[in-house]
Amino acid sequence: MTFRIEPYLEFGKKAFAREATYRMEVFTNVGSILVRLYLMKMVWVALYAQNTAPAGVPLHAILTYTVIALMMSLVLEIDGTRLIRDRVREGSIATDLMKPINLPLYFFSDGFGQTLLHGVLIVPSLLLALFIVHIDVPSPLVLLAFAFSFALGYIVNFLLNFLMNTIAFWTLETFAIQLIVRWVSDVLGGQIVPLIFFPGFLQKIVLALPFAAVYSTPLLIYTGTIAPSAYPAAFASQLAWGGGFAVLATFLWRGALKRVVVQGG
What we know:
By secondary structure, this protein is mainly alpha-helical. The protein contains twelve helices and no strands.
């Protein structure tokens, strides 16, 4: 059967339109980002007033890091794969599997459609954020590398969410494990605190974890901590994690399909 991309583009468009109908939630997300940004600014200003710049990172750089991290969270906190958990619990996943579509790609398309709306929200959020914090703007080359790294991080994040939600075929509920992984990802992924602030050997460990591929690598590229000469190694690490998760997700999904067949007789 010939693969056609058009249906998945339509799935993405419908998800965008569906997400746009919740206008109050949209405004709440923007307001939440600004409140978090203001609080983070106050924390960093207070810390820097008491100590020298950790890891040689000046205050304006860490504030830039914080702003970009929060803008990224508008996109990366969207989890289209939660539909897997919901439909497994409802029992409608069996009907979905009979449809002539690639179901994992459908989940990706639905999540990407939601992501596009939140991507649009980055613009007004960033403009409003400039009233609170001044941010540094790197060169076009760095911005291009950041965008590419961000895209790779998005894929790694999707695959990680996909793996967690696919576990619902066995457990029916994944909220607890998602909450734990999300908290660990925020802390060890560099969203809240740059991983280069971690001491010695611990820094090497957290930089080697898959969570760093989601937030830390793009952010360190943006702030110039990762030099252009190190871009290939940084991209290779993200690709390696993405490829590893893709292989694991393939095997887990096949096992999940067999489980549905067994449960359905």
